[in-house]
Amino acid sequence: MASLFSKIRQAYALLRHVDIAQLERIANKVDLSAVMDSLGHLDDKQLAHLMKTLGGARHKKKVLPPIEGDFYHLGLALTAEERELQLRVRAVMETEIKPLINEHWLKAEFPFEIIPKLAALNICGGTYQGYGCPALSTTMEGIIAMEIARVDTSVCTFFGVQSGLSMGSIYLLGSEAQKQEWLPAMQRMEKIGAFGLTEPEVGSGVAAGLTMTATRSGDQWTLQGQKKWIGNATFADVIVIWARDTADDQVKGFLVRKGNPGFQVKKIEDKMALRIVQNGIITLTDCVVAESDRLPLANSYKDTAAVLRMTRAGVAWQAVGCARGAYESALRYTRERHQFGRPIASFQLIQNHLVEMLSNLTAMQTMVYRLSQLQQEGSITDEHASLAKVFCSLRTRDIVSKAREVMGGNGILLEHDVARFVADAEAIYSYEGTKEINTLIVGRAITGYSAFV
Ligand SMILES: Cc1cc2nc3c(=O)[nH]c(=O)nc-3n(C[C@H](O)[C@H](O)[C@H](O)COP(=O)(O)OP(=O)(O)OC[C@H]3O[C@@H](n4cnc5c(N)ncnc54)[C@H](O)[C@@H]3O)c2cc1C
After folding, report:
1. What pLDDT, in 10s, does the model give residues 263-275?
2. Residue at a domain's end among 248, 266, 293
3. pLDDT of residue 310
4. What secondary structure letter does DSSP report for 95?
């Protein structure tokens, strides 16, 4: 009996929502008594569901806020010209480069067709003056790194090695003739560079432990030894090689040209991160380099460190891009994915993850933004760059892991645009100074004690 009354109540509630004129029109087309008969056989739950569906159809589709990882609107602090460039980089990355990425990442191959696309943006050699470089602000250079990494961290790493590490070494420490020969062609990305510092047995300890040797004889140097992890090494036209001068024990920089008979490179296979980047093990055997190809302003490891100080800030921005890409993909997914009849974005625990991600992402962005201002003012120190690198790469690991978490099983599939960021964050975490090494740099600055050994 109670169930009958309940059904009548629900049927009444349903009819209250029905437009009678419309009902008459429908009656001309369908057998309403048969429909009513069917309704009479529905249980409470089915009726409630039907009402909800009918009611829902009358509401407009919910308008959701835009997906935006720049919560504090740092993009608005750019000039109109800079903002336009930022959006142009984003458009090329999203429409022309992104479609190539997953396939190449899986095959661990480099998509060479991206080089002219990046070159056409005229962003290479970002902040350098002259030599065809665009003389951007340091902030803009950082924003560009973020935009590239927001779509793919491998492409950003390739670009960072070209524009930052290799062009930067020549720009800061090269002779005028070396700059004239290499920088304009590298800016147009017609020539590609690499940067060889790390060795198979020496990573964090390169400052004092570099084992590759350089021995001078007249106007020539002979280099002997190995380098490991060198990005772009398999196809680079010029590799900046750091080696210890056997005469004065100081670290010096050399431009080793593609095709040098003393140069051999073997690709590092089976990486689980940055699979698009072609990292190589370089072997130099009686590798002869002309004195004119030695970087004249690189006279000790301090000069190498000046290049790393400049590029470490870029790696912090890169971490921001990686985190931002993962956050935005995760947010989009949570709005589209339904469980228990609702978008998972409407669940409190999911929102907790998203807000934690956004908090860290916003802290990272404001930090690198200020870091770039220090760089622009010329007051950046090693410890400034190291703190940003440590903080951003650590928080990125956390953000990508939460992004993967809110996607459930789909979080480990490349097609959902988070899994690749999870893997790539591991490389950012370790290169250009591990967490420990950058922590020790900051620790030394704030305590006055060096704790490296
Ligand atoms: C994908 C990728 C790309 C790279 N590209 C390049 C490139 O283009 N050119 C280049 O020259 N190099 C490149 N590198 C090398 C990179 O810079 C080194 O991996 C990094 O400096 C760490 O050195 P390592 O791997 O030899 O680790 P190690 O130095 O062997 O360190 C191992 C562990 O010991 C810790 N550790 C070391 N010393 C201390 C200490 N004093 N106190 C506490 N902990 C310590 C480290 O933090 C780390 O956790 C690349 C690396 C990767 C992974």
Report:
1. 999 999 999 999 9
2. 293
3. 87
4. I
| Residue 428 belongs to domain spanning | 301-447
- Residue 80 and residue 371 in contact, taking contact as beta carbons nearer than 8 Å: no
Quote the ligand 1 centre to 95 CA distance (angstroms). Answer: 34
For ligand 1, say whether the CB of 393 is within 6 Å of any of its atoms.
no
Alpha-carbon distance of 118 to 132, in angstroms, equals 15
- pLDDT for residue 35 is more than 60: yes
Which pLDDT does position 387 carry in this prediction? 97
Average pLDDT over residues 165-188: 98
CATH, residue 346: 1.20.140.10
What are the beta bridge partners of residue 254?
A: 241, 294
Residue matched to tokens 């190995």: 226
Render pLDDT for 99-120 as a digit per residue (tens, 0 to 9).
999 999 999 999 999 999 999 9
Residues 264 and 313 in one domain: no
Q: How many CB atoms lie within 10 A of CB 359?
A: 13
Q: Is the pTM of the predicted complex or chain greater than 0.85?
A: yes
Using a 6 Å cutoff on CB, does residue 274 contact ligand 1?
A: yes
Distance 231 CA to ligand 1 centre (A): 14
Ligand 1 centre and the CA of 329: distance in Å? Answer: 30
Q: Tell whether 68 is covered by a domain.
A: no
133 within domain boundaries: yes
